[in-house]
Write a structure and sequence with these properties.
Oligomer: single chain
Radius of gyration: 19 Å
Strand content: 15-25%
Number of strands: 14
Strand order of the largest sheet: 3-2-4-5-7-6-12
Largest sheet: 7 strands, mixed
Number of domains: 2
Number of helices: 12
Amino acid sequence: MVVSNIVQAVTHGLRQELARDKNVVVLGEDVGVNGGVFRATDGLQKEFGADRVIDTPLAELGIVGASIGLAVNGMKPVAEIQFSGFMYGPFDQLLSHAARVRMRSRGRFTCPLVVRTPYGAGIRALELHCESGESMFSNIAGLKMVVPSNPYDTKGLLAAAIRDPDPVIFYEPMRIYRAIKQDIPEKEYFVPIGKANVLQEGKDLTLIAWGAMVKVCQDALEKLNNKYSVQLIDLRTINPYDAETVLASVKKTGRCVIVHEAIRTCGFAAELIASINEKALLNLEAPVVRVTSPDVPLPFAKLENYFLPDVNRILKGIEKVMSF
């Protein structure tokens, strides 16, 4: 076992896969000599060489476009986009090409591509650095969307993503990059894509979150101090998501609160609520409540705390459902 934060877990996962499979390559802006903007690839170029850990020009569309070509031709590229707000340039490559390779070729080709990117507000970064756009990518058929919330899941999900035959967007919550430390195995292990994690059992209410919001929910539950029996679910994967675990929990508790830091309209909570209404409506004791960011562009640093869901807003959401 080794004590790691999320950044270190990314490094461990990449090192494991680079050593295991010569077809795995890492590429992106400053990932080699400088070890990445958050040092998630620190030391990997020195260990594996500049032809396996590749510094690219500052051109996100080119990074992803080249990675798609590599993937279709038998390589397993892991592309780093420095911040999630820079994902909009290569969006067309992901939508029009990466996600369609299997269908377009009738299964003759796949696109085993991973695009890693730090996401989320709360670090006082500049405009267009901290977007939370998981619902946009989850709306693309053929593209998988993964959002870990802790070091153990980060390494396990990254290994699973790299070995997946289809393209995966790997959102890393930079707000908690170094805020959580865990003992994680040094040997290889996997966390399956598409399987949620029940972090806490409960019978009164289902609380669902992913990424950085999981820790905020845990802080809220500490402050709640067992007033209600809450089942906390870390979704871990947005597409495909674990509908079985979500529905089983809601059918048991009859109440649900969903927390995400993306804006409210068309956020992924809406999809979860639609599924709950379709398959567990008669089990509900109250309408499902969303605790999200407001429908405005991500503000500058002084207003971030007003923008993001926090402990008090989550507690208000819980009370709203429980008092219905």
